[in-house]
Input
Amino acid sequence: MIRGILGSLIGAEIDRRNGDSGLKGAAIGMIASRVLTRMGPLGLALGGAYVAKKAYDRHRESRRTV
Output
């Protein structure tokens, strides 16, 4: 379950960056989640940290523009 959530969040971040298609983000997110879970707990922590940093940067940028 965590792998699916993490994969979808990673795919959404990748798709948000280039904005071409949701299918590309979903495919990359699925591949990234498979790779990260094969790395074990460290991989899950790295994937979660990537998503958390992107969310933090987006939050900080929105506060800066307001």
